[in-house]
Specification:
The complex is a heterodimer of chains A (about 800) and B (about 110). With about 800 residues, chain A is an alpha+beta fold. Helix content of chain A is about 30%, strand content about 20%. Chain A starts with a helix and ends with a strand. Chain B contains 5 helices and no strands. Chain B is elongated and about 45 Å long. Classes of the chains: A alpha+beta (about 800), B mainly alpha (about 110).
Chain lengths: ~800, ~110
């Protein structure tokens, strides 16, 4: 008894010590986290002052000292004496600001989130690996290493990150490690490949094939082709109609037999229509300065830390400024003394599904081209925090991994049917070489040479040089397909359905110095239907592209500032066409109706008309199509696009689709559906925001936010940002996505390019730094910051705040 | 004979050194060891450790935030969630330190 009495307080002491040293479910390790000597308190950073601070750091592995100069936005300008040191320093400096993000994003890409968050990450992890993310990264890594320069960059970058990781004690760890209670592991070069592959996930993994097959099975080919046409009614393609074709097309493979297939109950990830981008370059004869100006704004998920990290990289043979992606060496989009380049995504179809016929439930053999062929097995092991390992076997056909298996969902057949994935992201590739060369490119020839190495995700590479050239290549590796091949699920037993090689890179759609004086892209169709190859049937809606082309055609005496205006353009070109058509059908005399009637078609932050119109479009699509295309959860289908709806309103008022098939004995007319959707819109908005008033303002309704990468971390996010725009607007800010890096560059004959840029975040990934989110307000206002382009580390500027010397 | 105040001062001083150079929980363990070696009276041992721990953690946190002001404490006070009240965050930090040192001090005194 006495013993228990004397030991009892010790047990209590041990209990709180162990309890607070560990995380429990979502509860952080309170002791470690709150300790003023070890926890988050240590992560606070002093704001920089006007006084320049200097510091020396020992970095193992450097061949020569490296100078790093930070400006007032905490953007590092790195000066090295050779490539190796340049990329080592880039890795070190990037990790210093963004280590947690770099590791978290590559864990996500590699299907390893459950190692950090436990069981709840498993579904995402399993999907990533079934899609072959690690397999793709391994392939890609093999390709990257074949270029000696890219290999040096990749390995030195990795060494730099590891030098930073090695310098950290527990109390220096970034905040998120403390919150989630884990430690960084050493970086490896393959993680850079994983990161780049993940961009294919973000930009080129959306797929409609299985849903389209469900539609085919339900309504037949004629309806499917009528409602899901292969070229939009309104379009302004990236390569202007009539651009010369400077190559002799190779023969197109014969089309495989028509195949209907089994369809799927799987909810495949759709293309996010809000992930896209704008870019353009205006030739010198349209600008005030007489020099080309280039602009770019990639629209990605807005996050903290930001997906982008600005840097200037200087070494013999290179002086480049721009945005990098933490996790990969080189500048991804930016400019040097001679050229500028930017990217937008290409919506071509580079991901196809094949229905696989297995011999038996063991799935070791599948039927193809008249014989049983062996599957390859890849065992994927998932480590789960606080749980047992989970093992998944992924079956590979010659197409690629079998992602979906019928017996994993309710299918009737005993022998499983699989859906195998053929995806460009699984090809060996050399994207790093492209960026390495673009960083050093001096002219159009260097630019086209750099592009030859690029596979995926395909991008519209816009280009301008101080020699006066502007150009745009729709660039990537595109499968050589028969027309519409891969629009629907394909027959995995039919050899004729296989991909038959690739379109020669020099035949990729491109345009140089067009007569109209500008090139542009906004994810719309790459070309008009006269292009000799089939690239895909569905691209992003054409509104942004049409608006940009309309404005650039009209604009003369272009300046950086007038292009900044275009980046922030809130004009709703969809409403210009659609709204008058809708208003014809609405009879009610409502205050809200006059609000939307008198709306100036600007998706401005305070606009109420924009809120009504945008909500109306969503409701209309749902009222018109959901009875036929959204009725059965087990048979997921797509709705026809808004472009098709507009055509239906304009020309097919009597179409069968207007009738709501769920209401028996009533035949709804077009007018009824439009009017009902309008009333429903007002009801929804009144329910959400109360009676019509300032609360209905577009920015308040839309709620653009820049959210921390950990879902639900509102305390580390910036929400309720007052910004206009929208998904089909040039200023493409939506609830969760938007212009993730806006920049504009005017080139100069004398090698003094003027760059302006902004992204919605800050250079530091540390929520305890004043540079965590310091650029967001400027971004929301539509302003840009002048970018400091330096020649030497000793150059004086009142914008310099800190100087580092890194040496071994 | 040590006074309560002296014991508190000793715990805070050694605790601060431990905090600066050793893992976080050593701040607790040192209180146990000192309570054992310096023969803290059992009756007041928890109180002694608690006051020392509360002061050490809360004041150190306050000092950290004054020395390096940032938006982080407010963000953390939203996260935990304490309605963004940094003053509450000092109290919670102090309580964690207080309970830690309190239990250990009690344990050390009890074991003797």
């Amino acid at each position: 008894m006495k013993f228990i009495k004397s030991i009892f307080p010790l047990l209590l002491a041990l209990l709180v010590t162990i309890g607070w040293d560990n995380s429990w479910g979502t509860l952080p390790p309170f002791g470690k986290l709150l300790s003023p000597f070890h926890g988050f308190w240590v992560n606070a950073e002093k704001a920089s002052t006007e006084e320049i601070s200097e510091e020396n750091l020992d970095i193992p592995g450097l061949l020569k000292p490296v100078k790093v100069v930070y400006d007032e936005m905490a953007i590092p300008h790195i000066f090295a004496e050779n490539d190796h040191d340049l990329y080592l320093a880039q890795g070190y400096i990037t990790a210093k600001d963004r280590l947690w993000q770099m590791e978290f994003q590559t864990h996500f890409a590699g299907g390893r989130i459950s190692e950090i968050v436990g069981e709840k990450g498993l579904a995402s992890d399993q999907f990533q690996r079934r899609m072959g993310s690690v397999y793709g990264a391994e392939q890609s890594f093999e390709g990257m290493k074949q270029d000696p320069q890219a290999k040096v960059a990749l390995e030195a970058y990795s060494d730099g990150i590891n030098a930073y990781i090695a310098s950290l004690s527990d109390r220096d760890l970034p905040l998120e490690y403390k919150l989630l209670n884990y430690k960084p592991e050493p970086w490896t070069p393959i993680k850079s490949a994983l990161f780049l592959k993940n961009m294919s996930f973000v930009l080129a993994s959306g797929t409609d094939d299985l849903k389209m097959t469900n539609i085919l099975r339900q309504y037949g080919r004629e309806v499917a082709e009528d409602l899901f046409p292969n070229y939009p009614f309104e379009e302004s393609p990236i390569i202007p109609t009539g651009s010369p074709i400077d190559f002799k097309p190779v023969p197109i493979p014969a089309a495989p037999k028509d195949f209907i297939g089994l369809g799927s109950a799987m909810q495949t990830p759709e293309k996010d229509p809000n992930i896209g981008s704008n870019n353009w370059a205006v030739s010198g004869n349209k600008t005030v300065s007489g020099m080309p100006i280039l602009a770019n704004d990639p629209h990605l998920t807005l996050s903290l830390p930001s997906i982008w990290y600005q840097v200037q990289l200087v070494a013999p043979g290179v002086n480049v400024y721009g945005s990098t992606m933490p996790g990969t060496p080189n500048v991804i989009t930016g400019f040097n003394k001679n050229i500028a380049w930017g990217v937008t995504n290409v919506g071509s179809d580079v991901l196809d599904w094949y229905q696989v016929k297995f011999k038996d439930a063991k799935k070791l053999e599948y039927w193809h081209d008249g014989q049983w062929k062996k599957t390859k097995l890849r065992i994927e092991t998932f480590k789960i925090k606080g749980g047992k390992d989970f093992v998944d076997t992924v079956f590979f056909t010659h197409h690629g991994p079998v992602v979906y298996l019928s017996h994993e969902k309710a299918f009737k057949s005993n022998i499983p049917v699989g859906h195998a994935l053929r995806w460009i992201a699984h090809e060996k590739s050399q994207e790093l070489t492209t960026f390495y060369r673009l960083n050093r490119a001096k002219n159009y020839t260097d630019y086209t040479e750099a592009l030859r190495y690029y596979s995926a995700p395909a991008q519209n590479f816009v280009f301008a040089s101080n020699e006066g050239d502007i150009a745009l290549w729709v660039n990537g590796k595109f499968p050589l397909k028969s027309k519409l091949q891969g629009k629907y699920l394909m027959d995995g037993t039919d050899a004729a359905a296989d991909w038959k090689g690739f379109i020669p890179q020099s035949h990729n759609p491109h345009v140089k110095n067009p007569a109209r004086g500008f090139v542009s892209s906004a994810n719309q169709f790459s070309t008009d239907p006269s292009y000799p190859y089939y690239l895909g049937w569905q691209y992003a809606p054409s509104e942004r592209g049409r608006r940009i082309n309309e404005r650039l055609t009209a604009m003369q005496k272009v300046t950086i500032d007038s292009l900044r205006g275009l980046q922030n353009d809130n004009y709703n070109i969809r409403a210009r066409k659609l709204l008058p058509l809708l208003l014809r059908s609405v009879k009610s005399n409502d205050k809200a109706l006059s609000e939307v009637k008198n709306w100036n078609l600007q998706n401005a932050p305070e606009s109420i008309g924009a809120t009504i119109f945008e909500t109306w479009v969503i409701n209309l699509q749902s009222f018109l199509w959901d009875d036929e295309f959204g009725a059965d959860e087990k048979i997921p289908m797509n709705r026809p696009a808004i472009d098709r709806t507009i055509h239906l309103i304009e020309h097919e008022a009597q179409a069968r689709w207007w009738d709501n098939v769920k209401t028996k004995n009533i035949k709804e007319s077009m007018d009824q559906i439009i009017e009902t959707s309008f009333k429903a819109t007002l009801d929804t908005l009144a329910k959400q925001h109360g009676p019509m008033g300032p609360e209905w303002a577009w920015a308040k309704h839309k709620q653009t936010g820049v959210r921390h990468l950990i879902p639900g971390m509102d305390a580390l996010s910036r929400l309720h940002i007052p910004i206009g725009g929208g998904g089909s607007i040039v200023n493409a800010a939506t609830t969760k996505t938007g212009p993730s890096w806006r920049f504009i560059v005017e080139l100069s004959k004398t090698g003094n390019p003027k760059g302006y840029g902004i992204y919605p975040g800050g250079q530091s990934g540390n929520p305890g730094s004043s540079h965590y989110d310091d650029l967001i307000d400027t971004w929301a206002k539509g302003e840009l910051k002048p970018l400091l382009f330096m020649d030497t580390p000793n150059q004086s500027s009142n914008r310099i705040r800190k100087k580092l010397t890194l040496s071994n | 004979m040590q006074s309560l105040t002296l014991r508190i001062i000793i715990l805070i001083s050694v605790g601060a050194l431990a905090g600066l150079y050793l893992p976080w929980y050593v701040m607790g363990v040192q209180a146990g060891v000192l309570a054992f070696l310096l023969k803290f009276p059992i009756k007041t041992s928890f109180r002694t450790g608690f006051i020392a721990g509360f002061l050490l953690w809360a004041l150190a946190a306050f000092w950290m935030n004054s020395n390096t002001p940032s938006a982080l404490p407010e963000r953390m006070a939203n996260l935990l969630p304490l309605q963004g009240q940094v003053s509450l965050l000092y109290v919670v930090t102090g309580l964690i330190g207080g309970i830690l040192l309190g239990f250990w001090s009690w344990a050390g005194a009890r074991l003797r």
